[in-house]
Amino acid sequence: MKNFDYIASRLRAMQAIVASMVVFMAFSVSVSAQNGDDGRTQIMIETTMGNIKVVLYDETPLHSNNFKSLVNRGFYDGVLFHRVINKFMIQAGDSTSRSASPGELLGDATEPYTIPAEIRYPEILHKRGALCMAREGDNVNPQRVSSAYQFYIVYGTRFDDNMLDRVQARLDATTGGSVVLSPEVRDVYKRIGGTPHLDGQYTVFGEVVEGIDIVRNIQWIDTDANDRPLTDVRIIKAYEVTR
Fold first, then answer.
1. Rounded to the nearest 5 degrees, what angle is found at the Cα of 95, between the Cα atoms of 91 and 99?
2. Least enclosed by CB within 10 Å: which of 12, 49, 53, 140?
């Protein structure tokens, strides 16, 4: 009986050690994810109003690899944030915007290819800071394929339950009821904010990890009737961050 008691006590001690290790590992993974140090590709976007750092999702490889390739080619260097809407988003990627005249309409440049949709709702949302690809509307693009070049970063707003109820009604109409704002999703939009009316319809392929205040400041600036900033906001350089 004595030997049995000794063995049992040793087993309990080992179980306690394993349990503590599991808690520590879970905490470490959580902290790493929050700091963006989880192996995902990081991109720095230097703008004339400050720097924005984003990470690219592994769950959307077509979009993430396309964006990374464009960044590494220097495609985004010098382009404007040509479309900015307060409490909504900031958009860039029109290659003709580098040399655009003041007030010139932008956003309709021809692109050589599209990217198949990689919509991962509800795991990936249009929360504040979401990095997403623009696209043509459903009337000409029912497959919801993405632009080759143009991207937007969500700022949006915070929602209450009444606002989310109205968004759900809008989603029911635009998605045939296929996009449902679950309690968990609603909590994100109440705490963090974003643009839930776009969920399930556009590909989100990354998120801002530093510089959301810069996104906020850009979406505040004055614009013309076509949502182009009256004062140019330019991407100076975009590049992959080495660790």
1. 105
2. 140
> Binning pLDDT at 50, 70 and 90, where does residue 243 land?
confident
pLDDT (tens digit per residue) in 98-142? 999 999 999 999 999 999 999 999 999 999 999 999 999 999 999
Residue 42 CA to residue 242 CA, distance in Å, equals: 8
Residue 32 pLDDT exceeds 60: no
State both tokens at 195: 């643009």
Q: Cα–Cα–Cα angle for 20, 22, 27, nearest 5°?
A: 95
DSSP state for residue 145 in the 8-state scheme? P
Helical spans, DSSP H, in the chain? 2-34, 61-72, 161-175, 183-191, 212-220
Strand stretches in 40-111, DSSP E: 42-47, 50-56, 81-85, 89-92
Report the Cα 46 to chain-centroid distance in Å.
17
